Amino acid sequence: MKWTLVVFLLSMSCSQLPSSQKASPEIKETLLTFTITEGISHPESVIYSKDDDALFVSNITSGDPLESRPLGTISKYSRDGKVIAAPWIKGLRAPKGMAIFKNHLYVSDVDQVVKIDLKTAKILNTIKVEGAKFLNDVVADKAGNILISDMMTDTIYVWTKAGVKIWKQTSALNSPNGLFIDGKDSLIIASWGNPIAKDFTTQNPGHLSRVSVKAAGESQAKLGSLQGNLDGIAEDNSGHFWISDWMTGDVFRVESAGSAKKVLNLKQGTADIFFAKELGLLFIPQMYESKVFAYKVI
User: Fold this and answer.
1) Among 19-28, 198-207, 230-239, where is mean pLDDT lowest?
2) The 3-state secondary structure of 168-207, one letter per residue
3) At 60, phi and psi to the nearest 5?
4) What does the pLDDT read at residue 208?
5) Are the beta carbons of 180 and 211 closer than 8 angstroms?
6) Confidence check: pLDDT of 7 > 90
7) Residue spans per domain, the chain
8) CA dihedral 160, 101, 171, 250 (to 10 degrees)
9) CB 3.0-4.6 Å disulfide test: which of 80, 224, 233, 268 passes with 258?
């Protein structure tokens, strides 16, 4: 466990940035509260369980996002980043996005989705998703339906009591990565862009869009002007979205009007971020650095 305490005063640092990159004036500062390194190996996603008062981190242990060997793990930590169990779950391949519904943790794992009991730390079910190539983020709606993005096939799947099926499939998804359901039953999608080269660069950048959870057939509405190889989506206590760009390492705060302000510039591999509202902390996995940062947003 490595602890770091750094105060990053945006009011001072903004003067060193181009005006187009200045952070939102509503943010007085971000405080890098702690850094998790123990038990971390190429982390892709972080999630906080209020009921368990614990953090869970998915680790692509080999570093290969298409790993076929059972090397991937989930690690479990206290709210302040202390190891509870690392690994907590073993036998996954390249676990990425996670979602919690009731007492279950759902994890995407290349071309399958894994259901884990949070209380017993047992894998309850593993569902093979036919046609999937690169399952990424996972989100649960109010009814417990699990939506999963597939970045390589322009598809979002849904896992219900009846099984897994295609929920939405269209080139307009633009290589969907991050998923988030807001309080208005809208699915917010962070797209990676296309076409995707072997090094994951793209000719065309991705963007944010919105579609109704209850009407998958509806056209997506573009949200704001932010572009990039977008990965994680999180929402803070003020209702603003935080978006990560995996390729550049930038972290943006998106205002209600859709305008984006760059707040942080980290390293390539800034993946599926998570805002724990109960803790007031923004968790940022650094895939290539094998670290997870915890920022206090004030």
Assistant:
1) 19-28
2) EECHHHCCEEEEEECCCCEEEEEECEEEECCCCCEEEEEE
3) -85, 80
4) 96
5) no
6) no
7) 41-128
8) -170
9) 224
DSSP string of 75-89? EEEETTS-EEEEEEE
The rounded distance, in Å, linking the Cα atoms of 91 and 283 is 24
| Tokens describing residue 257 | 């009007």
pLDDT single digits (tens) 97-111: 999 999 999 999 999
271 CB-near residues (< 8 Å, 6+ apart): 43, 44, 45, 231, 232, 244, 246, 285, 286, 287
Which amino acid would we find at residue 15? S
What average pLDDT does this structure show over 289-294?
98
Question: Which residue type is seen at 283?
Answer: F
In this structure, how many other beta carbons lie within 10 angstroms of the beta carbon of residue 166?
A: 16
Taking residue 229's Cβ as centre, other Cβ atoms within 10 Å add up to 23
Q: How far apart are CA 284 and CA 297, in angstroms?
A: 13
Is residue 273 within 8 Å of 284, Cβ to Cβ? yes
Which residues are bridge partners to 261 per DSSP? 253
> In the structure encoding, which two tokens stand for residue 174, read together?
């633009």
Q: In what order do the strands lie in the sheet with 43-49?
A: 43-49, 54-59, 72-78, 83-92
In single-letter form, the type of residue at position 180 comes to F
Cut 0.85: pTM above it: yes
pLDDT at 232: 97
- Is pLDDT at 253 greater than 60 in this prediction? yes
Q: Name which of 151, 161, 157, 156 is nearest 96 in CA terms.
A: 151
b or e along 231-245 (b: 16 or more beta carbons within 10 Å of the residue's beta carbon)?
Answer: bbbbbbeeebbbbbb
Q: CB of 184 within 8 A of CB of 193?
A: no
The second-level CATH assignment, the architecture, of 41-128 is: Beta Barrel (2.40)
Task: Render pLDDT for 178-187 as a digit per residue (tens, 0 to 9).
Answer: 999 998 889 9
